[in-house]
Specification:
single chain, about 375 residues, ten-stranded antiparallel β-sheet, four-stranded antiparallel β-sheet, 9 helices, 21 strands, globular
Length: about 375
């Protein structure tokens, strides 16, 4: 699960996703990289109108902001959300004791393990996302993630041997190997070790939306370490998230979120270590067994059914696929909006999202947008 700030990093946060097939626009050539992260902007009005609750779950800070509800009602709703988050933390954590960890131990031993209906549904959903992405999103590669030192609060900061990487890739763990039947799960491949770090926070956002609406909360913003979902508005204005430089501080642009939209970013600035002058991030390409390096970040905007889950999951295969396949992958995922930053600082954005961005400094030296096909 995770994802706490690493050495040399600031406590940065980001937003979530949806998509339709549409061309990309080349927005910035050799400019400073941009990423979307959750940045709560104050709207006009009394600050007392917003009830805020913070906690620490999934190895990251969680913020719940509720607008226009009586304090007792807001407190009860936020408390219910945090209880649910704690349940999911204990169920889905990749390396601390959890129900998922119990399954992984059974898979490694070639045994069957009982599981509840929710975890069975999550595994089947993750399997579907994995197959749809051509297995670039592959939660079964937890052993690779652990090999690179990311099954810890701080990465091990050491590059694994070529031999160990090759062995892990050759084992070919896949969600195709995971089967659920008669209330039990088993794997055909003992190398399968499921890590839902690219799924769980988005799933938790969808759960938070359901709980808040059941409590009669219609205007709220939920931020799980940078994965953000908006309900309704903040008074007469939409909730906003900011676009921030990945290596520096400062908001470059803002995006107004609509009811039910979620934003998610995958980036090399979130969990990483540096060795021999190179940056190694936690986003592992299952084909090579090595961290993806062609992009600095990919941000997606999602709406509709399961917006939270989709915003968390869909940025991963795009990040791993790299800049050459962004348009193809975005179309395949039926994305409505996407912003990506290449390793050399080009910013690629879909036209629909470009129309919604509000630049904080119009005088910045951005290149004229071009359609990328």
């Amino acid at each position: 699960m995770d994802k706490s700030p690493q050495r040399g990093q600031e406590d940065r946060r980001k937003p979530l996703s949806r998509f339709s097939s549409c061309p990309l626009v080349l927005l910035v050539k050799n400019a400073a990289a941009i990423l979307l992260l959750p940045f709560l902007l104050a709207a006009c009005g009394n600050r007392d109108e917003v009830y805020r609750q913070e906690s620490f779950v999934f190895g990251t800070r969680v913020e719940i902001s509720i607008f226009g509800a009586k304090t007792a009602k807001a407190e009860a709703a936020a408390a219910a959300v945090l209880v649910r988050f704690d349940q999911l933390h204990r169920k889905l954590h990749a390396w601390q004791p959890s129900e998922l960890g119990r399954l992984n131990a059974a898979f490694a031993a070639g045994a069957r393990a009982p599981l509840d209906a929710e975890l069975a549904s999550i595994l089947q959903d993750a399997r579907a996302f994995s197959l749809q992405s051509g297995e670039l999103f592959n939660p079964a590669v937890g052993n690779l993630i652990r090999l690179w030192g990311f099954h810890a609060d701080l990465p091990q900061a050491a590059v694994p041997s070529d031999e160990s990487i090759e062995a892990a890739v050759k084992a070919a763990p896949s969600m195709r190997d995971v089967h659920v039947e008669n209330g039990e799960a088993f794997s055909d491949n003992p190398a399968v070790h499921i890590d839902l770090g690219g799924y769980a926070k988005g799933y938790a956002l969808d759960e938070a939306e359901k709980i808040l609406r059941r409590h009669g909360i219609h205007n709220a913003l939920v931020n799980i370490g940078g994965n953000v979902m908006a309900l309704g508005m903040r008074g007469e204005r939409p909730w906003k998230v900011g676009i921030q430089h990945p290596r520096k501080t400062g908001v470059i642009a803002t995006l107004e979120l609509r009811d039910g939209e979620a934003v998610g970013t995958s980036g090399d600035y979130q969990r990483y270590f540096e060795a021999n002058g190179l940056r190694y991030c936690h986003l592992i390409d299952p084909r090579s067994g090595r961290p993806a390096s062609g992009l600095q970040s990919v941000t997606v905007l999602a709406s509709g059914s399961h917006a939270g889950t989709r915003s968390d999951v869909l940025s991963k295969p795009l990040f791993i696929a790299g800049p050459a396949r962004l348009a193809e992958m975005a179309a395949r995922a039926k994305l409505a909006g996407m912003l990506a930053v290449t390793a050399d600082g080009e910013v690629l954005v879909t036209p629909d999202l470009l129309k919604r961005l509000q630049w904080s400094n119009p005088g910045q030296a951005f290149a004229a947008p071009k359609t990328v096909r």
